[in-house]
Amino acid sequence: MTTETTAHRRAAVYEHTAAGFGTVRLVPVDPAADAPLIHGWVSEERARFWGMLGQSCEQVRETYEFVDSLTTHHAFLAVLDEEPVALFQTYDPDADPVGECYDVRPGDFGLHLLIAPAREGARPGFTGVLVGVLTAYAFTDPAHLRLVVEPDARNEKAISRMVRSGFVLGPEIDKPEKRARLAFLERETFERGLAAR
Fold first, then answer.
1. Residue 73 to residues 91, 128, 175: CA-CA distances in angstroms?
2. Where is the Acyltransferase MbtK/IucB-like conserved domain (predicted)?
3. Is residue 25 within 8 Å of 79, Cβ to Cβ?
């Protein structure tokens, strides 16, 4: 069986149904089972900002085995109904190289998101709804007071999406692998947005 037919059977850490969109479930990445799927996503030119172009499927599996061994970093597949549609990672900025590039505040919580290639063409509003679900999951932990993202500074689409999702742009930073643009979403801003709906 392929990952596409088994990922939806895993226990979810979070589930949300969005009207007119479907049910999104976050399930932990299984490095051995999911490496072929993730490799297919990260090896496309469209995913160049993810930083894994040119890696073999085995290298992708090893990367996610390493992530899986950490208590500060976690990787999930976002499954829409029964189809994996994104790779979502969370991390503690104090335990990540990004923590050396800005003043980490208590309650900061880092996110990475890679949207899978669309199987049937673009779906209007898809990324916005998905980002909303993922930020809602991140804020389920009351200890998380501010979300941190750091897309590649050249990735204008990702930066624009974060701003439209309520993130406030911070400075550009230099990491070993890229020049990144920090952006932050305060819990208060997120909750104000929910109340306004």
1. 4, 24, 18
2. 27-75
3. yes
